[in-house]
Amino acid sequence: MEKSISFVKADLERDVSLLHKWQHQPYVIPFWKLDISLKDYRTHLENFLADQHQSLYLGLIDGVPMSYWEAYWVIGDVVENCYDPHPEDQGIHLLIGEEDYLGMGYALPLLRAMVRFQFLSKGTEKVIAEPDIMNEKMIHVFEKCGFEKVKPIELPDKTGMLMYCHRETFERRWEDVFKTATA
Fold it and tell me: Where does the N-acetyltransferase domain start and stop, copy by copy (predicted)?
């Protein structure tokens, strides 16, 4: 049975408690390090929502919120100092918040849908990711989506694996999926 994937922009009042709960999941804490008080998380989320270089989303399966996404422009982000970015490069962060959705094969189709959305920006030829170098499962999902490992990078909160997904590679890999989805 086909599941529907959708994204909605994050909303402070509607989503702060849910996102705070997700940040306290044992499998999220080591990589996001935001297992802080609700008051502190609310301030964090307010600041992130006000940041014009990124957009925050909830990922939904059949209308049920189950993941969190940060789609960002590399210029203006700390990662811009880790390579020579093109002005239209975008990046992505994600987490699966609901434990019932882990290991069910949803990460790849969700990631594919978000990266496709990012490539709707005509100037974007590359989407990057920098998952924690210890997060082998997420690195594997990024690779399956069409990202390639570039190099380890030192960021303020982690050692990340810089990964690139070029538009041409992505479109070639997934052209059949998107043709049937729009047919």
Answer: 5-168
